Amino acid sequence: MKTPNIAVIYLPGNNCEEESLRAITSNGMDGKIVRWNQRKGIEKYDGYVITGGWAYEDRIRAGVIASKDPIIRDVRRQAEQGKPVLGICNGAQVLVEAAMIPGLRGRVEMALAPNRNPLVSGYYCAWIRLRSAQQKGRCAYTMTYDEGQVIPMPVAHGEGRFVTADQDVLHDIKKNGQIIFQYCTPEGEATSEFPWNPNGSTDAIAAICNREGNVMAIMPHPERASFVANLPSCPEKIDASGDIAMMRAPSAANNVFTSMKRFIGERQ
Amino acid sequence: MSTVEMVVGLKIPDGTALSAKQALREMGFAELGGLARYAYYSFDIEGDAGQFREKISDADILVNANKHTVSFEVPTEGTSVLVQDREKPIGLMNTLRERLGMKEIRGMDAGTLWVLSIEGNARKESARKMAEELLANVHYQRYTVM
Prior knowledge:
The complex is a heterodimer.
Chain A: E1 5-10, H1 17-25, E2 30-35, E3 47-50, H2 64-67, H3 70-80, E4 85-88, H4 90-97, E5 111-113, E6 124-132, E7 150-157, E8 161-163, H5 167-175, E9 179-183, E10 205-209, E11 215-218, H6 235-240, H7 244-247, H8 255-267
Parallel strand pairs in A: 1-2, 1-3, 3-4, 4-11
Antiparallel strand pairs in A: 5-8, 6-7, 6-9, 9-10, 10-11
Chain B: E1 2-10, H1 15-26, E2 32-45, H2 49-57, E3 68-71, E4 79-85, H3 90-99, E5 105-118, H4 123-135, E6 141-145
Antiparallel strand pairs in B: 1-2, 1-3, 2-5, 4-5, 4-6
């Protein structure tokens, strides 16, 4: 199998490109940070990660100016050929505003609205837990997750609440199995309750894929939780204490990228 | 009960307005000549509106005199698009009432007012398209073309 080569799309104002690249290369993939104005040759990559941050300072609203950037049109064309595209946090906001997620009717069908959070208004960061909501392999990023598996990840956003004014859209994404990850309690129950659900997202949605499963918008940050050393205090980390190799071992969140690699391998 | 409208603009260059104008033109809205952005507030108040205007323009939570302009009249030049969240700004109202003591506020709304200079005869229709395609996300916001 040819080593997958991933473009980490960097838009002005992003700040997670290095962590994203590290998560990619730690899984045996090649990767390169590709700036928004380096579009030439963008089609040669096997997959794309649109990183977190504040592209174009989130002017007007998060992700909307970036969604009009020519490089996102290029990425859309590659997604239409079946290549995987992963949008993390601000990247997720870009995919929603670009109508690539949920991608049912060719228009913007959802929003990532300001958080609904009893503690603070605006930006909020915390460790939360996600529940894998679909059967293994439903999309390019869950090839190695069991349905119901609980994964710790950090969130860091002010506009992360998946909403839609069109109830048919909500019906369709449920029917199609497009809700990939949900915020959950420590026991793995999807919930709308704070603090487990940090933003009041509809149906506890933390990540949605397109119908085909090759594009996913995820608000939490798997790239910031890829290694045991990244995790908050937990038995896994306590066991690794004093052992650098165990600290550098991949954590459950890293499987998002492991899955992406496997998906690309199966396409080749 | 009376209603006081307040618009807050920037004295300094407005990067968001510049980005919005550039994006709209790149999206094909060649008829857009200029664009200005204001923060918009509407207050339902008990009591003297004049005193309230004075008090609210001194509330530096909404206005910083070093960089903002304040007006109590909505701009009438151009075609305006008012974009507001579907949810009322309850947190901000509570801050004004409870922390800053403005108990005369009975209700309020907030949003972003875009004032567009549009060439041609179909100005309102053009403004509506700009709202739909860039300035508002109708899944959590509403907009009014004026």
